[in-house]
Amino acid sequence: MKTKITELFNIEHPIIQGGMHYVGFAELAAAVSNAGGLGIITGLTQKTPEDLANEIARCKDMTDKPFGVNLTFLPGFMAPPYPEYIKAIVDGGVKIVETAGRSPEAYMPALKDAGITVIHKCTSVRHSLKAEKIGCDAVSVDGFECGGHPGEDDIPNMILLPRAAEELSIPFVASGGIGNGKQLVAALALGADGINMGTRFIATKEAPVHQNVKDALVKASELDTRLIMRPLRNTERVLLNEPVQRIMDMESGKGDAMTIEDIKELVAGVYPKVMIDGEMEAGAWSCGMVAGLIHDIPSCQQLVDNIMNEASEIINNRFKAFA
Ligand SMILES: Cc1cc2nc3c(=O)[nH]c(=O)nc-3n(C[C@H](O)[C@H](O)[C@H](O)COP(=O)(O)O)c2cc1C
Q1: Who has the most CB within 10 Å: 82, 274, 287, 308?
Q2: Best residue among 22, 146, 173 to mutate for probing ligand 1, ranked by most atoms within 8 Å of CB
Q3: Which one of 140, 174, 208 terminates a domain?
Q4: Model's pTM, two decimal places?
């Protein structure tokens, strides 16, 4: 399939694997890129810029196809040395960066001077327009359904995507809640030029996470995610478990008086325990509503092929029957 996104990133299929903390290692990024999509290494999962340089080198050993690095911009007080991470990306010859979190504005000159294509992930039309204005090449429009941080506007993709299409001049991919070919076709119909998936890619053979995590996704339904940390204006969609229930109880008890200190042990340092050790009750971890559509653990190649075959069947057969 040829879209503005496949052209921009020089990939076969308009399918991106979004950066995911303690999931987006070289193994997954390479598997997605080898399957014809765009795999992305999660920059900050690597504890130092040197570690990121090694991870990029490992990924290059596993694929000749384009792949990217995610840089998530955290609030100022906990900022890692971003210029050094960017240097590791540039020196590693990576030409695609997915930015997320805060605006990448301060780092755009460094990225663009190095000839890097930047796709910024954001959760609203106004942030997408800002990304366009500061020179991002594309945006990933992340709807309310998404795993991770959906922002505070709560606009689902059925509205958010056509609104983005009304306003944006740069290409965008639909992100959040997507896991199959029907949804790829829907995203294209709503004005996107491709899709970005997080949660769906965790339940794949190559995702380097504990089997318990993959099994939990297959078992979960669309009713099993919850939003936490809204009182902190840092809303996150996570899979319901006992620690998440405790966070929600704390939120209803303390309301806006709640601070990060109140829930720190339930949200900080959780990812290695869940993703690597398979401790499913270690704390809160991001998961999207698309869990309800995850029924198997295919290879990345099978997943991408299934999505593309389903999309092509809909476009070529189902739609033709309506015409
Ligand atoms: C376990 C997990 C960890 C994530 N970590 C990050 C991250 O570190 N940085 C980031 O920009 N997005 C992160 N995301 C968001 C994804 O890149 C993607 O935008 C989101 O998962 C899309 O929604 P979906 O899960 O419904 O496909 C994470 C998502 C999940 C499920």
Answers
A1: 287
A2: 146
A3: 208
A4: 0.98
